[in-house]
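Budget justification, computational time. The allocation requested in the original proposal was used primarily to generate C-alpha cells for proteins on the priority list. As evidence of use, we reproduce two of the resulting records. The first is shown immediately below.
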Amino acid sequence: MDDTPEFDDLPSKSQRKRDMDALQAIGAELTELNEQQLATIDLPESLRDAVREARAMKHNEARRRLVQYIGKLMRQIDDPATIRSKLDGFLSVSAEQTAQLHHIERWRERLLAEPQSVSEFIAAYPEADSQQLRTLIRNTTEERARAKPPKHFRALFQMIRGLVEARNRPAHTETPAD
C-alpha cells in the first residue's frame, strides 16, 4: 500500500509561475485603463489604489516593482476571469472604434485625392448631401492650398463620421404613423 499523497492534482511549479505571470499581465493592463473604465471593474480598494499609483508613476523600475505588487494583489482575487473578460471587452470596443476611424479617414483622403470617389461615396451612402459634400471637398482643397487652419478638413471628417456611424447604429423598428 502506497502512503504517498497524490500530487497529480496540484499544478506544477511551472504552471503556477505561468498563472502568476498571467495575473501580473492583467494587473499591467489595468494600469492602462482610464478612470472611467477602471470604475466599471469591481476591484478591492487596495488593488484599485495600487493601479492608480502605478498609472501616475513615470520611473520604469519603480513602476515595474509596483506592477509586480499588483500581480501579487491579483492572486487574492476570487475570480480574475471576470476582470479578464472586462478587459477583453474594452479592447474589442477600442479595436472596433479604431477600425471605424481608419475607415472614415480613408474615405476622407480618397475624396480629397480622387474626384471620381465622390460618386462612389454617394453610391455607398445615398443619404449623404452631395452638394454639401462637394462644397466641403472644394473648401478643404482651397484650405490646404492656402495653408489655412483645417476647419473644412475637420468638417468633412465629421460629415463622413456621421454617415458611417448612422449606418452602424442598430435600426429602430418603428412603424410609420398613418
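The second record produced under the same allocation is shown here.
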Amino acid sequence: MDCRPQCGACCTAPSITSPIPGMPHGKPAGVPCIQLDELLRCKLFGKPERPAFCGGLQPGVEMCGESREQAIHWLSTLELATQPD
C-alpha cells in the first residue's frame, strides 16, 4: 500500500522520542513533525537522518483506514495503549 496523498497521520499522531532534524528532543503525540512539507510528505523519507521509528511504520489498510481521520484515530488509540504507566 502506498501512502495516501496529503495525509501525514503517521507524522502527526504518534510521539517520537528520538531526535529529528529541527526537533532535537523528538515530538509529542498529536504535533505534526517539522519535517512534513506543504503536501504532508516527509522531507526525510529515504534519508539516513530519518528516525528508525518512522521507517518502521508501514502503510497498511488497518493503520491507514479509508481517510486521514481514520488513520489519526487508529494511531492515536495505539499511542494511548502503548504509553508507559
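A brief technical remark on that second record: The mean pLDDT is 94.
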